[in-house]
Design a protein that fits this description.
The complex is a heterodimer of chains A (484) and B (479). Chain A is of the alpha/beta class and 484 residues long. Chain A has 16 helices and 11 strands. In chain A, helix 7 packs antiparallel against helix 16, helix 10 crosses helix 12 and helix 10 packs across helix 13. Chain B is of the alpha+beta class and 479 residues long. Classes of the chains: A alpha/beta (484), B alpha+beta (479).
Amino acid sequence: MHGRTLLEHAQALQAGEVSSVELTKSYLERIRVHDGSINSFITVTEEQALAQAEAADRTRSAGEAGSLTGIPLAHKDIFCTRGVKTSCGSRMLDNFVSPYDATVVERLKAAGMVMLGKTNMDEFAMGSSNETSYYGPVRNPWDPDRVPGGSSGGSAAAVAARLAPAATATDTGGSIRQPATFCGVTGLKPTYGRVSRFGMVAYASSLDQGGMLGVSAEDCAALLGAMAGFDSRDSTSVDHPVPDYWRESAQPIDGLRLGLPKEFFDDRLDAGIRASVEEAVAAWEGQGAKPVEISLSNLSLATPAYYVIASAECSSNLARYDGVRYGHRCQDPDDLEELFCRSREEGFGAEVRRRIMIGTYALSAGYRDAYYGRAQRVRQLIRQDFQQAFEKVDVIAAPVSPVLPFKLGEKTQDPVAMYLIDCYTIPVNLAGLPGLSLPARPVDGLPTGVQLIGNYFDEARLLGLGAAWQRETDWHRQVPPEFA
Amino acid sequence: MSEWETVIGLEIHTQLSTRSKLFSAASTQFGAEPNRQACGIDLALPGVLPVVNREAIRMAVLFGLSVGAKIRTPCVFARKNYFYPDLPRGYQISQYELPIVEGGTVEIELQDGNRRQIDLTRAHLEEDAGKLLHEGYAGESAVDLNRAGVPLMEIVSEPQMRSPEEASAYMRAVHGIVTFLEICDGNMEQGSFRCDANISMRRKGETELGVKVELKNINSFRFVERALRYEQQRQVEALESGQPIIQETRQYDPAGDRTRPMRVKEYADDYRYFPDPDLLPVVVDQAMQVELAESLPELPQARRARLVEQYALAADLAAVLVQSRQWADYFEATVEAGANASTAARWITGEVFAHMHKHSTEGVEPPVSANSLAQLLKCIDSGVVSNSAAKEVLAAMWQGEGEAEAIIEARGLRQVGAGADLDQWVDQVIEAHPAEAAQYRGGKDRLLGFFVGQVMKASGGKADPKQVSEQLRARLQKD
């Protein structure tokens, strides 16, 4: 049963081959048996899941089921879930039970989906390997000595190991697409503003975007339809019509101009990964797409600009964790200053503290223009580069990560090396564009992926290309042997 | 002293009268139990986002238009970062480089009738912080977040005021504008309208500004004047004795009538401002500006001039009436309902204010409507009731005993004019006091008062004193 895609589950539920309770129980059982080896969940909400599954089955017998009713999924622990611990992978929020549901959670609940639990992640979504979590690292289901990517490493690993048919995730600099690639699953980061950020714990507000990880592009399309749309509680969400992504993803690709930015195929890129990406491009070409070489000349500035902007915003966004109202509070502080300092020192891990320091520095009087101001100008240049590119091409194809999944601990001593892993995903966040990560031919038995970048609100086209490629290949259907 | 010039600039904080907070739907009502008016957004729970209150934007634009300022569009909300327990997000959402209102002027009028234009630098929107409670928590402090997120508009003047009197007149003028626009309730005791005053001294003729001192949180027109006067004196004395002025923040102590240096808040040096990425730049389109410009009410100065012009009121009475829009409206409604304008102005600023004050119902609607008051005033002017009896009638009306006419009848307060009754009382009184009558006729005019009193007494207060004295004069003459 767990070999199915989300849409296949939907068909089985609709055909009455399986009930939501049976389906939910089977995934809960898989989590119980297998999660010990990969640590992809922080919280498993068994009781609630079964209650939601029963409710979904009743909805179905009443003839009121929608296409997603009764399908289980997992939420990244960055989304607030009412009555359930929402830790964001941090000791700071280890005791935080959210009194409300995030808009994403609310919408998927309303669609009848069943929450299996909350997935592990890098602390406050800051990391590219899922090694910064307070709850321990997540392991890559394809090789337990390797990282699953981050920050949505728990969601990616859970879907790869088929402990959940799909999972929500977030992407600030590549946190959906890079773990998707490392774990061999499909992941979509929508256009900034497409999915509400209300109830999604903020890391860098101008870059954070909610999305999902699933088995197939079609699965992602189905979920996006339920998650996307304007939310009056998020001023940055965009009032743009939500198409039927599932249907629209079936559009033809004949004549589509596929841009290949040369800066993405530089010498940082692993040769094996390059071959896998080129294979995917050739497949689309075979389906009628026209490859066009393009240039995004300011790309090399993206990573430094990102670490200034994201850190600046995080230094302010994380100021609310002060030990006063909720979250971790240190024992017996002598005074107010100590309450603030020690609570934060104890509550936050090293990477989070590092980024708060970088951001505080970048915004300080006398440095603000040189760092934050300049980074914003770079961001503008990168946005322009993409806009010019989209005058010549319809979609951009690129690698997701320059490297294969690396070993746990391999890069933890070198933060800059870790930061540079996101060089192909970060520019997309700076520009606010949608990006899709699709599993490609593995290299040395490890998953790889190809990235499709679209113009604003062009998710359907990305998903259509993805679905077309996935109809011809089965990389996305491969399950790590231990979890088969 | 005369060789020194005083330079004063004011930052006025007005609490906008929106029903909900600047970035959340929680109520802004004053006086609730601690933390009953703080929602998840005010508590800064993980994941919550601010959404700007359009009503606050409307109010700020209204103010900008009323002082002839430029409305900046788009304007931008920025984060002012610092840690304090009453600041739940760890930053205050304010406006920094791109405020909603830029420039503008406010006209002030001094005691001697002189007028001056004071330029505004800007007015911007920001949220209030919460409040720390220190009493009753045994060595700990508690936080009340009811105020957190309440919308404030900070109005910053150029340093153009040259005396404490001007500062106070400016504060009054701004108070008049925001209350007439009904964007602020103007309640100074509850802190809805307060100011910080910056003051420095320089020798006359100098163009450089002296070292300034900031006087924080002054919530009365009188105090701002006194505080600045004290500070003026203190600074001149220091300068003349060769001591430097220290740039600092001081607080006015009304009891001791002096200013004192305030404890300096730590963490306050570098606020690391940057545009709030959770909020989009706010656009105030031309259509909205035009619509609001058309809805601008008459402001205090224009209204006072019109009251003087239209109703031939004395300037001082008109000035008292325009101290609040409520009373100016009440006055005009009373006249509209048929009362004589000068009677209405005198009664409203006299008896009605006295009742309002006695029942401490400030800011509340008077229990006697303008229409009801007009009925009473008409009775006075037509001689139906005497001035003194009318006071009794108004008191009864205040207690909800009904309309003027009914009370006059019920209490038998109808004034008795010329006629049989009056003739009879006058006759009786003259007959009963032959000696006094003789003295009066002998030239002792001041006895007339005695006779009037006797007649009034005989009438049980119902007689019209004017008519009584006329009758008496005629009758005592006749014999």
